[in-house]
Amino acid sequence: MKRATTIILFIIITTALFCSCSKPKDNKPSDSTTAAETTGTIVQTDAPTEIESVDDSWKEIYIDYLKNYEYKDNYEFALVNVDNDDIPELYEHAKQRPASSNLSWIYQGKVYSQTLVIDGFEYIEGENLFMSTGIQSGVQADFVYMINGNEAIELSKGTASRVIQGQERYNWNGKDVSEEEYNTLRTSVFDSSKAKTVDVYFSADENIAMITNY
Fold first, then answer.
1. Could you tell me the pTM of the whole model?
2. If pLDDT is split at 50, 70 and 90, which confidence band does 54 have?
């Protein structure tokens, strides 16, 4: 009788252990925070950030502008970075007088230009400052500009007359000044030591190819 009772108890205990071991596991996804705390591993759950597409519509605007450029054979061109936005500016250098040079830029889908003296063009890259300089008959003229929407604002201008030695005259923003004052005032508005010039030019067709592959 005792042996029979022992066998029955053994069967009951074995059955209970088997049922507990074979209980189905919960297949719900585990909480990432809990998993991180348990394992000590940082789990990245954020979705990857999408890269914003770059608007290249400016390319077609410049290409159309250059294709229809009047007297394009009389000019040479270069892309420059004056105001440090995503769209370069276009410097149009006249090959000979009496034509004037130009700086062009795109604003709200259209090309706008500022007429410049043919002799010299300097710009401080990314700082939205450029200067046009011309010398004729011994008189130097300096004009400092910045781009503002659809126009270029003239910030300062000056003339330095060196026609007659010993009778030099300097004027800055309508006020007569000494040569030293002229140079100081000019530098305070536009520091040429930080400026760039254009040394390499391309034809209109070459610029179209460069813009396409920009």
1. 0.73
2. low
Q: Give me Rg for the CA atoms of the chain.
A: 37
How does residue 30 score in pLDDT terms, banded at 50, 70 and 90? very low
* One-letter amino acid of 114: Q
The CA-based angle 115-192-86, given to 5 degrees, is 60
| Pairing relationship of beta strands 129-136 and 120-124 according to DSSP bridges | antiparallel
Q: Render the burial of 94-124: b for 16+ CB within 10 Å, e for the rest.
A: beeeeeebbbbbbeeeebbbbebbbebbbbb
CA distance 98 to 155: 25
Give the pLDDT score at 174: 97
In terms of DSSP bridges, do strands 120-124 and 110-116 run parallel, antiparallel, or are they unpaired? Answer: unpaired
> What gap in Å lies between CA 84 and CA 191, rounded to an integer?
18
